[in-house]
UniProtKB/TrEMBL annotation:
<dbReference type="InterPro" id="IPR029058">
    <property type="entry name" value="AB_hydrolase_fold"/>
</dbReference>
<dbReference type="InterPro" id="IPR017531">
    <property type="entry name" value="Hydrolase-1_PEP"/>
</dbReference>
<dbReference type="GO" id="GO:0052689">
    <property type="term" value="F:carboxylic ester hydrolase activity"/>
</dbReference>
<dbReference type="InterPro" id="IPR022742">
    <property type="entry name" value="Hydrolase_4"/>
</dbReference>
<protein>
    <submittedName>
        <fullName>Esterase/lipase/thioesterase family active site</fullName>
    </submittedName>
</protein>
<dbReference type="InterPro" id="IPR053145">
    <property type="entry name" value="AB_hydrolase_Est10"/>
</dbReference>
<feature type="domain" description="Serine aminopeptidase S33">
    <location>
        <begin position="31"/>
        <end position="147"/>
    </location>
</feature>
<dbReference type="Pfam" id="PF12146">
    <property type="entry name" value="Hydrolase_4"/>
</dbReference>
Length: 288
């Protein structure tokens, strides 16, 4: 299907945000809002979000990718993924204002963009959000990182003859060993808690609550060659808040074994686009 691309300027709490709208000739009733992860802007690593938007638009889905406040070409002060719900709401508003035929949206996010999508749902319960496409969600904590390193890095290293050879020859610094011991302690006992208290749940728990309460479809795509994805699975399988997460009734889960964090190869990027269309968007009642 043919499509066009146009600049979209829209307001968010007094600041002007900039996005790029990929608009099919006959758009589906479901639109897509791409939520950028990390300290980057709407193009994405290796033009990932540009190419994704064009692939989805060619299949008939309008896609808006945009810069948060304080990033790229948008006004305002920089903020992290825990403070962008107003930006996401403004983007959904802008998409529907430009294309009134769009009745529902799917939020597509990579890394802490996926986390931001869940936090938005937790804060707003926006009925317009019918689906979530979550790629390598970010759930980083001191404990989750330690567990992932012990399970997927240190365990592997300790099984390698090369490691022990270097250790015996003094080529592995002994000062690195306390770090291993510290990670093992944190992995099995948890991080030390500070004396400060807060009424706000950790962002990981808010993500889990949103996931459990979400009534739409969830597509989870994980990279096989990515510690963020491994950390997510480790956290989801050990933290009580995530007990029912991976058995969500409308969850579709897929793993690309050779893909890195941003699906940077042509093969993995193309496959991620195809899976988004096949499993993330092709849900009953979502097409015009």
């Amino acid at each position: 299907m043919t499509y066009t691309e146009e600049t979209a300027l829209f307001a968010c709490q007094g600041d002007t945000l900039l996005g790029i709208l990929a608009k099919p000739e006959i758009p589906a009733q479901t639109g897509v809002v791409v939520i950028v992860g990390g300290p980057q802007y709407r193009v994405g690593s290796h033009r990932q979000f540009v190419l994704l938007s064009r692939a989805l638009a060619a299949a008939g889905y309008a896609v808006l990718r945009f810069d948060y406040r304080g990033m790229g070409d948008s006004e305002g002060q920089p903020r992290n993924f825990e403070a962008v719900s107003a930006d996401i709401a403004a983007a959904i508003d802008a998409l529907q204002q430009r294309l009134p035929s769009i009745k529902q949206v799917v939020l597509w996010g990579l890394c802490d963009g996926a986390s931001a999508a869940l936090l938005y749902c937790h804060e707003t319960r926006d009925p317009r959000v019918s689906g979530l496409c979550l790629l390598n969600p970010w759930v980083r904590s001191e404990t989750s990182l330690a567990r992932t390193q012990v399970k997927h890095y240190y365990t592997q290293r300790l099984r390698q003859k090369e490691f022990w050879t270097k250790l015996l020859r003094g080529r592995v610094a002994l000062k690195a060993l306390p770090g291993l011991v510290q990670n093992i302690r944190i992995a099995f006992t948890g991080a030390r808690r500070s004396g400060a208290t807060t009424s706000l749940l950790p962002f990981q728990h808010r993500m889990a609550a949103a996931w459990d309460a979400f009534n739409g479809s969830i597509f989870l795509l994980l990279s096989g060659d990515d510690y963020t994805a491994k950390e997510f699975l480790e956290h989801a399988s050990t933290d009580a808040a995530w007990t029912n997460t991976l058995t969500h009734p409308r969850l579709v889960r897929h793993e690309l074994q050779d893909a890195d964090h941003t699906f940077s190869s042509l093969t993995s990027r193309t496959k991620a686009e195809e899976l988004t269309l096949e499993k993330g968007l092709q849900q009953p009642g979502q097409r015009a």
